[in-house]
Write a structure and sequence with these properties.
The chain is built from 14 helices and 15 strands. By secondary structure, it is α/β, with parallel strands linked by helices. The longest helix has 23 residues. The structure holds pyridoxal-5'-phosphate.
Length: 393
């Protein structure tokens, strides 16, 4: 990318952590142009569905390996979360358990910024200004700790001793907590959490808005951890920035309870199932496969981790590095410091994000080795310069 004053910038964030194929793709552009000359609006909310939306749903079922899932389409990760909430509550109400309305989520989690998603999000200090609008259905658990195989599952067991499971509808989980600093679950912990929820009739909703379709170096983080789930949300990697699209995939044992109400759950938007977006997403999936993007993400994540650990271990402060595929983070000791690194990196020609004390990097999944080396080199310079400025040396 290039700034208004003509400086070239390496996009270490893939747009909004979603341009997984990079910026510009002629196959996607061609499909977009072709579809734009034909059918562009078929709203599933009105009970209609286009060939492209049907074909995309079929493709997603194959990709996630759940041949009988129902995939509904939304236009953003937040909307996918809202749809999942609607499904959860409808499901329990259809089963005669309308009290099962409370939802469990992890501290530090992010599930979107529409009101339902915000109410579920564990970044509670960010919306203190609108507390009276936020419903109070959230039950909190601590964030994952990759070095603790039972941190969240222990807390879940405790929580269930104090609250009637007949009041709990679902748990929403990011297998790798993105905005919290790319914190992966310990495999044993997340597996135990899923098992406990299953035993206690709590639906498991995996929010893979960020990690779905390759970002974690696997098609899904669910596959990487070997998790069973009831609903799966994916968004960023589905449109890869070319079109706003997201999916809420519903396992058949849940969808069958909703029966006739899916897709006419009375939940959807003007653009839900939009054929142009669906056609683009199909070509995006083709391009991800053709470019071996998922495999590349896994390899390049390892390259980043090795390089970053090598260069950062030799300098003053400690900088823990986290890499799961291309979900990358470097921890600093304060949010001001992380912001300082972000600003310096941009001046040096690298676009990254600072969230709380973490520096977040999410380059396109097709990043080449030379660009990864360049990215780590610019990041290291930005960190060194920030460190020097802060110590005055
Ligand atoms: C895990 C997760 N869920 C939901 C969302 C919300 O997605 P959107 O910004 O498309 O509404 C995000 C966005 O970053 C996310 O990372």
């Amino acid at each position: 990318m290039r700034t208004a004053d003509g400086r070239d910038i390496l996009d270490g964030l893939a747009g909004s952590m979603n341009a997984n194929l990079g910026h510009g793709n002629s196959a996607v552009a061609a499909a977009m142009g072709e579809q734009a000359r034909g059918l562009v609006a078929v709203p599933t909310i009105a009970g209609d569905v286009s060939d492209s939306a049907l074909a995309l749903a079929e493709r997603i079922r194959q990709v996630i390996g759940i041949p009988d899932a129902t995939c509904t389409f939304m236009s953003s990760g937040s909307e996918a979360t809202e749809a999942a909430l609607a499904v959860v509550w409808k499901y329990w109400s259809e089963l005669g358990q309308p009290r099962k309305q409370k939802i469990i989520s992890l501290d530090g989690s992010y599930h979107g910024c529409t009101l339902g998603a915000l109410a579920l999000t564990g970044r509670t200090d960010e919306h203190l200004d609108i507390p009276s609008l936020i419903p109070t259905f959230r039950l909190a658990l601590p964030a994952w700790d990759p070095s603790d195989a039972s941190r969240v599952s222990r807390s879940l067991e405790k929580l269930l001793e104090s609250i009637d499971v007949d009041d709990i509808g679902a748990i929403f989980l990011e297998p790798i907590m993105g905005l919290a600093g790319m914190i992966p679950a310990a495999v044993d912990d997340i597996s135990k959490v899923v098992t406990i929820c299953r035993k206690n009739n709590i639906l498991v909703v995996l929010d893979e808005a960020l990690t779905g379709l390759g970002r974690a170096g696997r098609v899904t983080a669910a596959g990487m951890f070997g998790l069973d789930y009831d609903l799966l949300l994916m968004s960023k990697g589905l449109g890869c920035g070319f079109t706003p699209i997201a999916t809420t995939c519903i396992a058949s044992h849940v969808a069958s309870v909703l029966g006739e109400t899916v897709p006419a759950l009375r939940h959807g938007h003007t653009s839900s199932g939009n054929p142009l977006a669906a056609r683009v997403a199909q070509v995006v999936l083709d391009q991800l496969v053709a470019s071996k993007a998922v495999e590349n993400a896994l390899q390049m994540g390892e390259v980043f981790e090795q390089l970053a650990l090598n260069v950062l271990s030799g300098i003053g402060r400690e900088y823990p590095v986290r890499a799961t595929g291309l979900c990358l983070a470097v921890e600093t000791d304060s949010s001001e410091y992380a912001q300082g690194v972000r600003r310096r990196a941009f001046d040096l020609g690298l676009r990254i994000r600072a969230i709380d004390r973490n520096i977040i990097l999410c380059p396109p999944l097709i990043i080449e080795r030379k660009d990864m080396l360049q990215m780590v080199s610019l990041l290291t310079r930005a960190i060194l310069e920030t460190e020097r400025a802060s110590t005055g040396s």
